[in-house]
């Protein structure tokens, strides 16, 4: 039996007719988890005396404005069915193998904790990851820290069903990235929550991730235009950089953007975050018709391995 999420528990108690009203009346409960077992990004790094990170400060303000109650944590040891049951959405900005202490020194997730997370999402939870959330639980990589560049060979092949269960749940996996640069993403679905005010294209200076292992059931929301980009990691056809998908009874959202503080500070990015959280928390619905082959038909073509 799958674990009850907070939303499912309320429905069980209140009955389906009252669920929508109950959701609207209560704040959205979100766990923002930022353990960095691999590279620790500046937007999630706390101050010398534990002061909130840039992203935590921004999310606190967004939460106050949009009735979202954030819990901030870097402690992987807390993951269990009981712990997760208090949340509507789990939001990852993580890196590396989270079952190891790694770079930031915070407690790792246990194998049972990882299973609890996947079961919670499959049971109806909402899961969101941005940027380095796809740089977590890499298939065939078990390094206590950031994986060395010369040990990333499995990223330059499609592992398919052999991929780590987290990768399959998320619907994609980070390969590498080139230099930060201005590039253009095509907005595929401007009806998705948080995307309504965007134009057809979004041109941003960012650390653009090269990604793979795209699930065939992804609802692609943004596709990166790789033409003219600098670096061998973009020597490939256009590919998705944001999507939504189901996972069992749950909902999953990923957006590769979010490396830079100025991206987090931008109105468009904040609108994406809030819209996705509201969708994941079942405040609104969206079209999840798979469109990967239609909008990024050559996304399985990977860049050449780094020499």
TrEMBL record:
InterPro entries in UniProt: Class_I_gatase-like, ThuA-like
SUPFAM superfamilies for the chain: Class I glutamine amidotransferase-like
Residues annotated as signal peptide: 1-24
Keyword vocabulary terms for this entry: Signal
Record-annotated ThuA-like domain positions: 29-279
Pfam family, one: ThuA
Keyword Protein transport carried by entry: no
Protein name (record): ThuA domain-containing protein
